[in-house]
Every structure is written in C-alpha cells, then in structure tokens.
Fold this sequence. Notes:
Layout: E1 4-6, E2 11-16, E3 20-26, E4 30-36, E5 41-47, H1 64-77, E6 86-91, H2 107-121, E7 126-131, E8 137-142, E9 147-152, E10 157-159
Parallel strand pairs: 1-3, 6-7
Antiparallel strand pairs: 2-5, 3-8, 4-5, 4-6, 8-9, 9-10
Amino acid sequence: MSNTIVVGMADYKVGKAPDKLMTAGLGSCIGICVYDTLAGAAGMAHIMLPSSNGNLQGNLAKYADTCLEMMLEDLYKLGLRKTRLKAKMAGGAQMFSFKGKVPQLKIGERNAEAVERELKKHGIPLLAADVGGTFGRTINFDIKSGELHIRTINHGEKVI
Length: 160
C-alpha cells in the first residue's frame, strides 16, 4: 500500500518506496527529485528562490542552495549512497511577462540554473528536466520506478 507524501511550497520531504512524492503549484518554482532506486528512497523539494545569499535566517527550504543541502543530509541518513543518486526536475516557468529583459525578473530560469549548479556541485547527474514555458505544473514522483509524472494546465501530461 503506497502513500502520497505531499510537499508544500518552500519545503522538502523524503520517503521510501512504495510511497510517492507530490507537489502542486509549480510556476517559477522548481520541483526537484533526488533519488536512489536501488535503495528505494527519494527526496522532493519545492524551491522558490535561487540563493539564500548567505542569509541563514528563516525558512532555508525555499532556496536552491540551502534546501538541497538539508535534503541530501536527510537522504544520506536513510542510507542512500552519493554515487547512486540521480535527479529529475520540473517547473521554472516564466509566469508573467515584463517589458524589457530584466534578468532579476526571470526567476524561473534563475531557479532552474541554481538547482543545476547545486546538483553539479554535489556530483548528482540530472537525468531529465521539464522546465520553462509559461504554464504551471503539478508533479508526482514514483520512488520505486524513478518516474516523474508531470501534469500541466492546457499542456497535457508527460512522464520523464
């Protein structure tokens, strides 16, 4: 019997198969799944912003740099091996259009780049990603199979 573990905005959760991990409402936010199918465990984070900029006050799960650190620590406590970790991510949309090309406003793109940078820093390969566009996503991660199911409004469903 599997449960669905719900991950809220600016949060992360870890779980073991046969459970699934789910987060909804990914606009410019990134849903990142880090997993080890051999160990049958995974973590999912709903990341809102690219960097904590060294500010270690408040909710550290909202930032790509600090959230991934915390989630990886919890995954290692479950017995996951760094050498077997893999990742998949979705989100990072540009939900609003702005006049001009102000890079600070491209939060979705900056979030995706920050998550990729953090994964590289930890030596975790990103196997698949569904990022960008102008539409929101809801994701479900099957810990047992390593499949990331992505639902979008008006853009259908896919599995990566």
